[in-house]
Structures are given as structure tokens and as C-alpha cells.
Amino acid sequence: MTSFFDHTINGLIIGNIYGLVAVGLALIFGVSNLINFAHGSVYMVGAYIGWICVATLGTPLPLTLLAVMAGCALLGMLIERVGLRPLHGAARIAPLLATIGISFVLDQVVQLIFTPDPRALPSQLPTWRMQLGTGSIGALDLFIAAVGVGSAALLYGFLRFTRLGWAVRATAQDRDAALQMGVDVNQVNQVVFALASALGGLSGVLVGMYFNNIFPAMGFQATLKGFVAELIGGAGNVPGAIVGSLLLGLVESYGVALLGTSYRNLFAFLILIAVLVWRPNGIFSSSRQAPPEPLTGTFIAPSKPLLLPRWALATASGVALLLPLVVRDSYILQTLANAWLYGMLALSLTLVAGTVGQMSLGHAGLLAIGGYASALLALDLGLPVALAIVLAGVITAGLGTLLVFPAFRLRGHYVAIATLAIGEIVSLVILNWEWLTRGPIGISAIPPLSLFGWELVDTAAIYWLTLLVVIGLALLQHRLTRHHLGRALRAIRDDDIAARAYGIGLNRYKGLAFTVSGFVAGISGAITAHMYSYINHQTFDTQISVLALTMVILGGMGNILGAIVGAVALIGLPELFRGFAEYRMLVYGIVLLLLVRFRPQGLLGTV
């Protein structure tokens, strides 16, 4: 009984904290129809503002919370005005990608200022606990509950009884109609971002006090939990976000009690997938509610792709093949080998995101499946490395398509969120299935790359192998996309309703695209595992998925050559500035923002 009571209280408290994040996301989605990936970074900034107030300035709790909310509100207004408003009228997915870039920039700036090391954020409330029956509740628990209830009440009053709140509700219902009635929608957006960011920052500082711990990467998980809570209740539905947050908090708390803390995040993502498949508009939506508009094709900016003659491509390939004979620096060759591996990943992503229009943010999960499959086949079954790599590609193609299949019926932002959740589920399964994957220890002593019994230990040999594989996979993908399959995939991207009306089976062709994509990504992950001889659940994280997306946009969505060029540009060129390696993720975020704003068609144009 004691355990049940304590886990219930803990679930409700955590649910209250999730609620502050989810309500902010719901407000922004309701007004701007935008999934804001930068919201978690604002949450993290709020935690650090609170740490400065408590640890450095010694401010009292009311002043600390006021400073956090004011600072995050200003940050939210800056994000809206500088990062998102210039994209008004652009493709609907452009602001979503911009928020990803903003998140990268904010996370990296905080990490550079405060270092990656976690910091303690002590609670400024008394530490007493009050017995209630067989359980107990503390001052911080009551305070978080009061903040959650109070924030919900104030937000309800603002939206219900103030003129500005009416303007927010009108804009959420019909932005164009509100504009025609004289509502300043830009002002409404500013207010909504300020409110949402203030609530997000407040949540961040409360989480820091509750766990007595903050760190620069804390915002990512908060964003995902906020998405889950919001989508449970229905995107843009503020009351639904609150209820969804409490349900999520309770499920997590009870799940941890049964299976342990390592499964906490897995419950959230499984719930997310179940809700998206069963009721994508949320459990509080009407069954007759229209599905979201598709994002497929909306980022493909009109452009004429740069078509290089065959002799130019052959010359470039020849120069790349002869490079090890001229360049003897093993570090440069190793860096370019990494670029070819990322080029494979970019090839796999440009097929599904650029050619068929399914925006995937979980492609790192395919790398992980390929890496672990090949390592286990070579270690446990003793298969030759070359055979293990090929079989790993096949396994990734089948398993990856099976995992993504539930997302085929989704549209809009939900496809990106579902694939992101699937990638996280893969990572968490690898972490917890110790009997198969060795759990957090990872897999070590993976056999090195070898071909026909010849071990590839020389850097030049590894360079040649990765280059030949990426060229072969690029030619295969080129052949497929120039076939009738490519025309069908592009038809789905441009207008899936029209494509279905012409008899194109959407699920079948999406499945074929993800199968090919999974095979290519699986090969890349498998080679990576054998090249480095050690992998764990953190080797292929979500940052890799976002980095691959940046490469694809840089080269040109759907452009096969552009994917490889984007990989070389983002992996190879930064090595010219090795002394600034710690700024790499900051550079990637800025590059993504600049591309979305000024060159959405990429360097070589879209196909």
C-alpha cells in the first residue's frame, strides 16, 4: 500500500511537470500549427536561469521563479520573431526544421557556457514530509501540484475572459478569418510563444529542484515527453494536454515500480505509437475529425537540379579512388571514410524523405539495428564479416520496415514524431535486452572489417571499401528511382490522395522505399560497428538522425549525388578546423537554420 501511494503521488507530481511543457506545446500548435522542437531547449534554459538565481545570486524562491519565467518568455519571443516569423508562407515543414536547428544552437551554447557536467539545483523549500496514511508527501510535492493547478487556472481565465485570450482562441480556430477580423496574428504568436516558453522554463526549474540535477541535454527528453502528453489529449488541445500529462506520469511511475527505471522512457514512446496508430488526433478528439494535412512534398522547393554529365561523375569517382595514392595522412582518409558512411545514411534518408516525402527523424535506429545485427552475427554465430554485413542490411530492411509500418497511415507532423519515437524505442530496447545486446555495457571486440579472408586494418583499405560501397549503393538507388518505382514514389510525395486515386498502393510503395532505405542504412551501421570494434546504445543517437537530415537538405532533397555531397561537406570540411571541434553541433544547427531560410532546395537542387 505504501509503495502504491508513493508511486501514485510521484506519478501525479511528474505529470504536473509534464503538463507545463505539454500545455506550452499545445498552445503553440493550436495557434501556429507547429510542433516546436525548440521547446525542450527553452525548458533547459529555464533550469539554468534558476540555477544562476539560486546558486550564484541567492534569490528567494518567488524571485527565482519570476526571473525564470521572464527570461524564458523573452527567449520564446525572440525565437518566434527571428527564427520563425521570416518563414511565414514557406513550406509547412520549414518551421519544424527551423525549431530543430534552434534547439541545436541553444543546447550547444549552454553546453559551451556551463560545460556538459551536471549541476545540482537545490530546492528552496523546506525538506519536511507529511505522513498521509501509509505514505508521505513533501513540501516540494505540494508546491509543484499548486503550480500546476494554478497555472492551468490562470491560463483558463486568460483564454476565457480577456480580449487577448479571445484573439488567441480565434487565431487557433481560423488564422485567416481572425486576420480578416482585425486580429494582429503576429502579436498573438508573440504572446503564445511568451506564455508557452514561460511555462516551459518554469517546468525546467521545478524538475531541476525535484531531482536536484540539471544538465544541457535535459531538454530533449522533456520535448519528447511533452509531445507524448500533448498527442494523448490531442494536438492543440490544452485540457487534453493536461489530462494526457497526468496519465503519462502515472503510467511511467507504475511502470518503473514494476520493471525498473531503465524502462521509464520506453513506456512513453510505446504509448505515443499506440495513440498515433489508434487515434492520431488524440483520445479526446471526435471520431469524425478530419485527419491532418500531409507534409509530403511541401518541402520540395521548386528548383532545377544540377545535372552533371556522366564523364564528370566518372572523373570525380576516379579522383576519389586515387586519393589514397596521393594523400598519405591516415587521419584525412579516416575522416573521409566516415563521410562515405554518413553518405550511405544520407542516401537512405533522401529516398524516404525526399523521394517519397516521409519525413523520418529516427533513422539512427536503423543504423543501430544494422550495427548490432552484424556484430552479433559475426561474434555469436561466427559468420564471415562480409556475409554478416550483407545479412545485417537485409535484417535492417525487414525489421525497420516492420517497425515503421504503423506510421504509414499517418500524415502531417505525426510522421516525423512517430519515426523519432521508433528510433528512441530501438535505442531503449537495445539498452534493456541485456540477454541479446549486452545492455549498457555494449558489444566489444567486434571482428574487424575483412574481405575474402583479408583483414582491412590499413586506413587506405577501409577508405576504398567504404567508397566502393557508397558508389554501389548510389548506383542501385539511381536505378530504382529512374524505374517506374521512382515515379510512383514521387507521385505519393506530391499528392498521396491523387496517387491513390490512380491506383498506387500507398502502403506497398512506402514499404518498398523503407525496405531499400533500411538496407542501405543497415549496411552503413554494420560497417561502422566493425570499423570501430565497439558499439553501445548511445553510439547511434538522435543527433545522428538530425545530422543526416541536415546533409540531405544541404545536398537537395531527393538528390542522390546531393546526399553524398552533403555528407562530405558536413563531415569532411569541419575537420579543416579541428581546433573548433566542440563547436561542431553549433555549426550544424546554424547550417540547418540558414538552409531552411535561404536555400531550401539545397546545393544541387531537389529532384
Describe the structure.
With 607 residues, the protein is mainly alpha-helical. The chain has two domains: 269 residues, ABC transporter involved in vitamin B12 uptake, BtuC; 269 residues, ABC transporter involved in vitamin B12 uptake, BtuC (Orthogonal Bundle). A two-stranded antiparallel sheet has the order 1-2. A two-stranded antiparallel sheet has the order 3-4. It is globular and about 70 Å long. It starts with a helix and ends in a 9-residue tail after the last helix. About 1% of the residues have low confidence.
Structural class, please? Answer: mainly alpha
**Top CATH class of the largest domain:** Mainly Alpha
N-to-C span:
62 Å
Q: Judging by the overall fold, what is the CATH architecture of the largest domain?
A: Orthogonal Bundle
Number of strand elements: 4
Query: Would you give the CATH topology of the largest domain?
Result: ABC transporter involved in vitamin B12 uptake, BtuC
User: Which regions have little confidence, pLDDT < 50, spanning 5+ residues?
Assistant: 294-298
Secondary-structure element pattern, one letter each: HHHHEEHHHHHHHHHHHHHEEHHHHHHH
The number of distinct structural domains comes to 2
Helix content: over 70%
- Biggest sheet overview: 2 strands, antiparallel
Number of helices: 24
**In order across it, which strands form the biggest sheet?**
1-2
Overall mean pLDDT score?
85
Radius of gyration: 25 Å
The proportion of strand residues reads under 5%
